[in-house]
Amino acid sequence: xxxxxxxxxxxxxxxxxxxxxxxxxxxxxxxxxxxxxxxxxxxxxxxxxxxxxxxxxxxxxxxxxxxxxxxxxxxxxxxxxxxxxxxxxxxxxxxxxxxxxxxxxxxxxxxxxxxxxxxxxxxxxxxx
Length: 128
Hints:
By secondary structure, this protein is α+β, with helices and mostly antiparallel strands. Helix content is 32%, strand content 25%.
């Protein structure tokens, strides 16, 4: 996945915003809360992307080649994974992980903000 493809996919998710910060990282947010960080890689290497996962997802992905507990975030007890190569998570898998991260982060927004944004409402498909 290229940086452009990453940005296009994150932009396609509902109610997202982006900012470039932290040394040029492309940071994507939903409701003002970070759900994806991407943009650093060595020339020719897959895009490095960091995203939130469930507790089970953390246990699984932290053991897979090409993925690791996200520096800084995981060391503070947060369940975030960084994909550094596509060895065990291809681009389709990364898109799924980014959509799930968006969902997980949106569930932690206040109920009022979720309602204002039309997220996680009963009868609404996930990430509609």
